[in-house]
Amino acid sequence: ACMLCRQAEVDPDICGCKLEKQGLCVHEFCLFLANELFQQQGEEVGLMGFLPEDIQRTIERAAQKRCFVCGESGAAITCRETGCDRSFHLPCAVEGGCITQFFGFYRSFCWEHRPEQAVEAAPAENTTCLICLDPVGDRKSYSTMVCPACKHAWFHRGCIQKQAIHVGFSCFCCPHCQNEYRFLMEMLTMGIRLPRRLPSWENSHADVALSERHSRCDASECLCPGGREQAEEEGPWHLLLCCSCAAEGTHRRCSCLTNSTASWECDSCA
């Protein structure tokens, strides 16, 4: 399990990949969003630029704080509002109505101090989400969002987050009016994570070279004690990506491969 959020099975779209080095195991964005933890110059240092000793101190500090959502200790993220001491785990953020910003200073806010959409708009009766086509709420809220440009595109937070992961930074825009910059900046501010990679339909070996590479075992039965997201540099729990599409992965042992196997092809490509 991640030593910051203390959870093993999480949504990788939100928490990112699991990183392991020098006895530490943490999710990528648990690192970036943790309080008083600063990235050094150069991602080759430590874990993505975070020094192991700094991470350890952050883990020890978090052990003294309880998540206001689930009540468990190990809450490494605290609301950035001055005077607010609400802390939470990254996987608990959505349930607690919190906003975590995946850019710039990686700021986080509790339900009381989170940013709100300033655009003056309200959905008409029987308005549906442009993405899933299910009804939206009767007003702007944490879970019901609107495009700030056209004011006519309404969608659920979870739906626009899934679309952001699917299309990536270069193609992200309002699903109705196609506005790019204003829509993108609003969604980032409102806590939507937008990966800097090509759209999923343009997946290629060049895409795999980016930091957003697939990082999960997709075997029908994952045997790894650390879960589907654990990946070691060598041995049975080394994660191999499909050599054709790079969109699926497997631990060597989960697909009955030897420790010397260097390539693997998923069932869809085989």
Write up what this structure looks like.
The chain has a two-stranded antiparallel sheet with strand order 1-2. Strands 3-4 form a two-stranded antiparallel ribbon. The two termini are 32 Å apart. It is of the alpha+beta class and 270 residues long. It is 18% helix and 10% strand. The protein is globular. It has 6 helices and 10 strands, in the order H-E-E-H-H-E-E-E-E-E-E-H-H-H-E-E.
Short description:
The protein is α+β, with helices and mostly antiparallel strands. 18% of the residues lie in helices and 10% in strands.
Ordered list of secondary-structure elements with their pairings:
Blueprint: H1 12-15, E1 18-21, E2 24-27, H2 28-33, H3 52-62, E3 77-78, E4 87-88, E5 99-100, E6 108-109, E7 144-146, E8 154-156, H4 157-171, H5 181-189, H6 205-208, E9 239-241, E10 249-251
Antiparallel strand pairs: 1-2, 3-4, 5-6, 7-8, 9-10
Keywords:
alpha+beta; two-stranded antiparallel sheet; about 10% strand; about 270 residues
Main structural class: alpha+beta
Please summarize the sheet with the most strands: 2 strands, antiparallel
Mean pLDDT, all residues: 89
Give the SSE order as H and E letters: HEEHHEEEEEEHHHEE
Radius of gyration: 20 Å
Q: Give the overall form.
A: globular
Q: How big a fraction of the residues is strand?
A: 5-15%
The percent of residues in helical segments reads 10-25%
The poorly predicted ranges are: 205-211
Find the count of extended strands (DSSP E, 2+ residues): 10
How many DSSP helices? 6
The strands making up the biggest β-sheet line up spatially as 1-2
**How far apart are the termini?**
32 Å
